[in-house]
Amino acid sequence: MVDSAPHPSKGGVCVNLTKMDQISELNPEDFTVAVEAGVTRKALNKYLRGNGLWFPVDPGADASLCGMVATAASGTNAVRYGTMRQNVLNLQVVLPDGRILHTAGQSRRPRKSAAGYHLTGLFVGSEGTLGFITQATLRLHGIPEATVAAICAFPNIRAAVDSTVQVLQAGLPIARIEFLDEVMMGACNRYSGLSYAELPTLFLEFHGSQQSVEEQVGATEAILQSNGGSDFAWAREPEARGQLWAARHNAWYAALALRPGKKGYSTDVCVPLSRLPEVLLETKKDLLDSNLTGPLVGHVGDGNFHCLLVLDPEDVEEKERAAEFAKRLGRRALAVGGTCTGEHGIGLGKRQLLREEVGEVALSTMRQIKMALDPKNLMNPGKVL
Amino acid sequence: MVDSAPHPSKGGVCVNLTKMDQISELNPEDFTVAVEAGVTRKALNKYLRGNGLWFPVDPGADASLCGMVATAASGTNAVRYGTMRQNVLNLQVVLPDGRILHTAGQSRRPRKSAAGYHLTGLFVGSEGTLGFITQATLRLHGIPEATVAAICAFPNIRAAVDSTVQVLQAGLPIARIEFLDEVMMGACNRYSGLSYAELPTLFLEFHGSQQSVEEQVGATEAILQSNGGSDFAWAREPEARGQLWAARHNAWYAALALRPGKKGYSTDVCVPLSRLPEVLLETKKDLLDSNLTGPLVGHVGDGNFHCLLVLDPEDVEEKERAAEFAKRLGRRALAVGGTCTGEHGIGLGKRQLLREEVGEVALSTMRQIKMALDPKNLMNPGKVL
């Protein structure tokens, strides 16, 4: 379980950058833009309206883009458009000694570069431990001519995951492919007054030209049906798409509504796709055995899923049970070649799992880098390493 | 100009890893494979035959994949499939002190991760200065159902580049879009006995389903023609595609044949697409003014182009003129927000340009990392920094 709230763990200073909210250097022909630390994902996409461009990385919440840089965020569109790692071209960083670093050099924005160490890549996912990220130059994408949303239920988890693998193997450029387990679907039905089948379900989205999207939908539907998919439905118009996807978009709140007044905590493992069915099944069994409420929702195209645990924060014993469950889940992912965190980061709570995941040599290499760039340990001390 | 040959600049030891040629851990469902240091691109793609998978990063030469990791290589397919940066999941590295590092942890291969510093990204493009890369876990892609190659000539450079921008803005998932200037086309005609129009020319390739590829070809042809494109030709069958692309594939040798017995040196700038026409035109004028032979060939979808200088290695004055030209070209790219190296790396020859490109703060940050990981400066000393 991640405790990713940006509060200092041992006292210290919290710096609020939300008022650094300028968007600049929009170059539509080059698909690039620069955003300051306080600019959120939705604010950027609103700004881009009329240019035919958008920034697709979507972690759900309307997070600040530089915060998304700091945690290497991703979300529902990553299967097609990549995570933050693939969509950041340059960063402005205030280093611990006060100097201003431009990770790719000031004002640089080529689509690719082989000039020296990849500092941009190092700062993406550094969780505030190497400096303040004050501006990010981002890579934009063209808004697709057509978008179609779809939904399909499956008799079991394996059928849903097998369908995903086959869609990817067929080279279908799917934009979103999200998994909700039957518990999550039940929660969504109750929360949003819907009547979906309470079965393992895939939510999908297709981007492209009208013709290409129709072809993708047809080819995908054939794959889903060959795996026993049922209740296949799709929608083209924005409003209808919104309705279809409402269940997925409200999943977090639907989970919370399972136990009104309680608190949510999300796990975040990511595993190779071929190992996903067994990890999902073992996790569901563990949830039952642990007597925990935790519907599952996954960015299944990336092998990444979240268990939305709903807990009583006053119940120390339950919190302890959940922490043990989350640790077992992390180790289950590690045992099959996966990671304890696909997109949320290490923070405080996953430091032990990070050690198990990368090993002593990698951990000491990370510490050498931290020591070299922040010798006084001023930046978010105690986090990650 | 890059001198990227792996020879020690001040004496020292050269380690030959070509016999480490094992391919392992192929997981077709997960689109991953591991290759040792000596495995080349073609050897891997031969190994993958029959699995419906391929590794698309193609720098032209049959380079070793771990060498491609070290230089952050890319090439003709990068506009669709990304560079090495987007296609490496994990690295095994022998560190300067002899310890073995797994940048993402041993045997880990999730499609994405937010676990600690992105060491994998740091070692991609490190040019041998941080350790020996002995194994790489790579991301594979499905072989497209259909491939179509095409070629189109333009009245001028701007028309060719404008076409490229419009193809990308239309969201067409083009796999390759390569530019050859009229000098290069003339050289190719002579070298390969062809009769293409000696005009600025785009070579294109489309990947996808039969239907999607046909749609892409149609939409692209319309864009090219609206920009004055002529002599549009396309080919579907492997042999015909090979013939169509022969000019592009033999460009290096065709350039060398312009001055038999002389040596080739390639420049490698990469600039934002919108600035590419002016940089190409100024570079062509500079070539003329400098009395140098240097046909142009570019990965135009990425804004990256090479000037294939053909020089007399015995002519000290000409070499000096070429070095000055290359430096001006690097600075021309820097002046418009680009990089002095899109895919070849810094090596020895571009260290001054790197300093100008990234600035003192970034350079000192890179040096701090180098000092932290290789305090005795054992690894490829004198290169990059």
TrEMBL record, chains A, B:
One of its GO terms (cellular component) is mitochondrion. Gene3D superfamilies: 3.30.465.10, 3.30.70.2740, Vanillyl-alcohol Oxidase, Chain A, domain 4. It is an enzyme of class 1 (oxidoreductase). Keywords: FAD, Flavoprotein, Mitochondrion, Oxidoreductase, Transit peptide. GO terms for biological process: lactate catabolic process. GO terms for molecular function: D-lactate dehydrogenase (cytochrome) activity; D-lactate dehydrogenase (NAD+) activity; FAD binding. Transmembrane segments: none annotated. Residues 1-143 form the FAD-binding PCMH-type domain. Its cofactor is FAD. The keyword Phosphoprotein does not apply. The keyword Transit peptide applies. It is found in: Mitochondrion. Its EC number is 1.1.2.4. Belongs to the FAD-binding oxidoreductase/transferase type 4 family. This is D-lactate dehydrogenase (cytochrome). It comes from Pantherophis guttatus.
